[in-house]
Amino acid sequence: MPYAHPDSANNRLADAIQDAKARNNNSSEWREVLTATTKHRSVLIHWMPGRSDAMHTHPNAEEIFVIHEGQAEFDFDDGRTRVANPGSILYAAAGQPHAISVLGKAPLLMMCFMSANHPTDTVER
Q1: Residue 49 has what pLDDT?
Q2: DSSP 107
Q3: Cα–Cα distance measured from residue 118 to residue 39, given in angstroms and rounded to the nearest whole number
Q4: Do 82 and 72 form a contact (C-beta atoms < 8 A)?
Q5: CATH code that applies to domain 6-118
Q6: Per-residue pLDDT tens for 30-52?
Q7: Which of 14, 46, 79, 104 is deepest in the core (most CB within 10 A)?
């Protein structure tokens, strides 16, 4: 998940996933930065079936993924993959290579939390 400038975030005191979905035309791909400071960022991501991202690392930041809808395959570059369904929580420690692919025919709705939030932290492999 790329850097999120603090000015790009909603940083609302309270929000809801259904409200974010309504703001973002739930039928296409989108990402909404919900919160961002120099210490963290949280992003709600909606990816369509077949979407995947490249293997990458965040040398100085941890990332937590929470699956709300759909199904994804996580590759943590450790010789096996993990299939994540709604309710799954996954963790990539700082420096842990990872890639994500959307499985099945349903879109993926996933919340990502990252700490820290630094412009140069994402490194593609």
Answers
A1: 97
A2: P
A3: 8
A4: no
A5: 2.60.120.10
A6: 999 999 999 999 999 999 999 99
A7: 46
What residues contact residue 78 under an 8 Å CB cut-off, 6+ apart?
Answer: none
Tokens of 77: 């570059």
Q: Would you say 102 and 47 are in contact if contact means Cβ atoms under 8 Å apart?
A: yes
Using the structure block, give the residue that is written with the tokens 């709604």: 86
pLDDT tens, 52-70?
999 999 998 999 999 999 9
Extents of the domains making up the chain: 6-118
- Cα 57 to its chain centre, rounded Å, is 13
Residue ranges of alpha helices (H) inside the chain are 17-23
CB 115 within 8 A of CB 39: yes
pLDDT of residue 2 exceeding 90, the answer is: no
